[in-house]
Design a protein that fits this description.
The chain is of the alpha+beta class. It has nine helices and ten strands. Helices cover 42% and strands 20% of the residues. A hairpin with a 5-residue loop joins strand 4 and strand 5. It starts with 19 loop residues before the first helix and ends with a helix.
């Protein structure tokens, strides 16, 4: 008996990426854009937009967490914002980057579009323009709050805030995160990160071994965080992001 070949069905014509900006576009807008999008895999420590180079492509993450970091002359880095499926990387519209964008928690891939197509679509003043505009408001709020948080709040509270934001974005309780990345994000040293992570683990909030974090008690993690997590989350929720 001849074995019947497996039929591979194409995805529905209006199938959407996981990125929320692209997913929320009206069908006509998305269909116009989809032929200009290409899907690329994302890896940990992948540099998406190098410092000092013009932005030539915008990235719509379908998962994971990317960091926008400020790089000092000695090579040290401090995170100023994070971006997940709610946003887009490269909204600087072809400008020279004074920061660096790096993938810190990889998950699946991203949709990529040239800056020229992105700018042309924004010039239509349609749905993408409105979505990106709302997201830009949220991103500015995140950057402002992160600056205040870095200056005013203890490292353990800031660590809880960052873990909560990552937990929201990856959509699962466990994810990979090295001491190096966590120290960079918190503007702290690796020994301090080890101490903070150990304290949170001892309290039963997380499990942290070999760069692998598991959130064990979300409610207590929220209670241990500074006010900045709720402030930024509420703002993004109001914007519908």
């Amino acid at each position: 008996m001849t074995k019947r070949a497996k039929v591979v069905r194409p995805p529905p014509i209006d199938s959407r990426p996981k990125n929320r900006i692209l997913a929320c576009l009206p069908r006509a807008d998305f269909q116009r854009l989809r032929r200009h999008l290409r899907t690329v895999p994302m890896a940990v420590k992948q540099i998406i937009h190098p410092r000092g180079e013009k932005v030539r492509e915008v990235f719509f993450p379908n998962g994971g967490v990317a960091s926008i970091t400020t790089v000092m002359q000695d090579g040290s880095m401090v995170e100023i914002a994070t971006v997940g499926t709610e946003g887009v990387l490269g909204v600087f519209d072809g400008a020279m980057m004074s920061a660096e964008t790096m993938m810190q928690v990889p998950d699946t891939n991203a949709e990529v579009m040239s800056v020229e197509i992105f700018r042309r679509e924004l010039d239509r003043r349609g749905a993408l323009y409105e979505c990106v505009g709302r997201y830009s408001q949220g991103l500015v709020t995140l950057m402002m709050q992160s600056t205040a948080c870095m200056a005013l709040h203890p490292v353990q509270e800031r660590c809880c805030r960052w873990l909560l934001m990552t937990h929201d974005r990856v959509g699962r309780d466990d994810f990979h995160l090295s001491h190096e990345f966590l120290a960079m994000m918190l503007g702290s040293t690796r020994p301090t990160v080890t101490e903070v992570a150990g304290s949170l683990q001892k309290a039963g909030l997380i499990k942290y071994t070999h760069g692998h974090i598991t959130v064990l008690n979300r409610k207590s993690l929220e209670a241990a965080s500074c006010e900045c997590y709720a402030t930024v989350k509420d703002h993004f929720d109001r914007l519908g992001l």
